[in-house]
Design brief:
This protein is of the alpha/beta class and 366 residues long. Helices cover 64% and strands 16% of the residues.
């Protein structure tokens, strides 16, 4: 799907969300004010924040589509993440204001006057929010839009909040006691929790999150299936928005391959990544010396005898200087990587005579 079509579908989905949330907010606010129910009014406020979120989503996706320029050569796709951060702050603000009003109701409670119309509106809201949430979540996954996915999840969460409102109405009608303020406080806390979760998710996108391990495993396996590739390592995805990423990867090839052979392998990898994943890819080369198989095996065994080590690759031997350099995968849970590196270097020196230069790459062991 091209960028224009993605933008069109996100805009359409968000517009549907805006319309549904504005209508729900209007009905709920009217019923809440007539009945004197703070819980129903706060539910209406939550719908308005959802509508505002959809407006920001539309603005974000349109700004993100701006062409690359001198200062932003990889485009403006990350604007979508900042729009998601703004949505998170709006939700948090709504939650805090809702909590304040609910506490006031707890301190000075008033018996709300519910009617059949109130119950009908809240029941309708549950149905609408469930349908809207499923639709928006599906489109978010399809379009790789975190903003839409979060909006969809939020809509389904709102349905649960409306169910809680119905429970409060039932308690008031049956037992003639008001739990409106307490229910409003619970709703406000749920809104705040959702806002914090969305904020942390969006900040993670801006800071740079670890790529999904299943995707990276799949990509490395596909690269290893390219003729001439002996191994694929150090895969990194640099995200410049939901629809643009730059990939870097190191591959091992035979040291006996010609420059033409290496060029062919590099082009095959770039073609795969461009056509299947839409990634611009840079490829680093490790030349494997077939004459050093025993030395590599010995050093690998020495390294892997230590807890927390995940693998080795990228060996380069200099027999004249009696040195070897290589990369070693180390689990993030290792408490003192420098002490472990010194031990590995000392063990290699003792058992092989090589002076080792080791570069630790930190990974999780999944």
């Amino acid at each position: 799907m091209d960028v224009l079509e993605r933008e069109r579908q996100i805009t359409k989905t968000s517009a549907i969300g805006i319309g549904a949330n504005v209508l729900l907010a209007g009905f709920k606010a009217l019923v809440g004010l007539i009945s004197g129910s703070i819980a129903v009014v706060l539910d209406a406020v939550n719908n308005l924040t959802d509508a505002m979120s959809s407006v920001i989503t539309i603005a974000g996706v349109k700004l993100a589509r701006q062409k690359p320029d001198m200062d932003h050569p990889y485009g403006h796709g990350r604007i979508e993440y900042f729009s998601a951060i703004l949505i998170s702050f709006i939700i948090l603000a709504a939650g805090v204001m809702s909590l304040v009003e609910s506490v006031k109701k707890i301190i000075t409670p008033e018996m709300p006057d519910y009617s059949i119309a109130t119950i009908v509106v809240v029941v309708a809201a549950v149905a609408v929010k469930l349908l809207l949430g499923n639709y928006v979540s599906k489109k978010g996954a399809e379009l790789n839009s975190d903003a839409l996915s979060n909006s969809g999840a939020d809509a389904k969460f709102d349905a649960l909040i409306s169910v809680a409102t119905l429970i409060g109405i039932g308690v008031t009608l049956i037992f003639k006691i008001t739990v409106d303020g307490w229910l409003g406080a619970a709703i406000a806390l749920f809104i705040i929790k959702a806002g914090i979760g969305m904020l942390m998710e969006s900040l993670g996108d801006v800071m740079g999150k670890r790529a999904d391990s299943e995707i990276t495993k799949q990509i490395k396996q596909e690269i290893k299936e390219i003729p001439g590739v002996l191994g694929a390592f150090d895969l990194i995805l640099h995200n410049y928005g939901p629809s643009k990423a730059i990939c870097s990867v190191h591959v091992e090839v035979s040291g006996e391959d010609s420059a033409v052979d290496v060029h062919r392998i590099t082009m095959a990898i770039q073609k795969l990544m461009r056509e299947k994943y839409k990634f611009l890819t840079t490829v680093g080369i490790y030349a494997v010396d077939p004459k050093k198989a025993e030395e590599r095996k010995k050093i690998h065994e020495i390294v892997m005898s230590n807890p927390g080590m995940l693998g080795t690759h990228g060996y380069f031997f200099d027999d004249e200087k009696k040195t070897v350099s290589f990369d070693a995968g180390i689990d993030f849970t290792v408490n003192d990587p420098e002490a472990l590196k010194k031990k590995v270097v000392a063990d290699i020196r003792k058992e092989t005579g090589y002076t080792a230069s080791v570069n630790f790459d930190a990974y999780f062991s999944d």
